[in-house]
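Collaborator request log, item 7. Partner lab (contact: R.S.) asked for a structural prediction of ABC transporter permease to inform their binding assays.
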Amino acid sequence: MSQHAERGDVVVPARPGRLRTFLDSDIVYSWKQQPVVIVATLVTLVMFAGALFAPWITPQNPFDPRQIDLIDAFTPPLTTSDFTGTFYLLGSDSQGRDVFSAILYGSRISLLVGFAAVLFALVLGTLLGLSAGFRGGWRDALIMRVADVQLTFPSILMALLIFGVIRGFLPRSMHAEVAIIVLIVAIGLSDWVQYARAVRGATMVEKSKEYVQAARVIGLPDRKILVQHILPNVMRPVLVIGTIGLALAIIAEATLSFLGVGMPATQPSLGTLIRVGQDYMFSGEWWILLFPGVALLMLALSVNLLGDWLRDVLNPKLR
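Returned to partner:
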């Protein structure tokens, strides 16, 4: 296909494709210039892919008791069991579960809780921030005072409080079944404030601009002005906060599970695996704690580095 289209005697250059436009953008250029960000991206993609395709990658399902051999418990890394002939890349734990399989399946739970909690906090905080910044008055005062009160408590303590209150209203038999939902709600409710404050400030700036005044003049309802005009212009800082918040949500889930109030041992996340592994830290079975801890560190650090880079590249004041 030719690169130019002729209209009479005028030659019009063909428009570049969307992929070419993206590859030539400042974001891609900035990404190529930072080796640390490239490595963080590769680590994040590998860990995401490993968690997503865990059923096809791992030699066993650590959540299925039929695939676990107690006789293979405490098998060291890079060792073949003398009893079943199974090769354990990262060793096995006290129940005979393959640590490599447990890490990938645990990463699925940690990432699911992290993404869902960030999405819940983002949606809730964005809605409250839009309402407070656009409406003002008593709505703004009420939402911001609640946010100020919540900011006086560390987020992990707030998540513990919310987790305990929700579980207190549920029968004990349902605790294991709804643990993941309770975790998502608890972490999401403890992190909505930062989204609400960012959206409120951006909304107060945007609502005084000329395009919003013009939309009001032509008779557009407030809901359409918020959704079609203001919301797209306040999402950039929200997405940056969400990227950084994903690492914090994963760490919060791991902390709650480590404290014994998160995922049960039958459906371990990375935090649960670390809690189980600490019992054997000084008894010689070091791999049960080390490898889940390294996996959590790599996942949280790589996502956090990507969030910091995205914040810098999307902020024109830092260029």
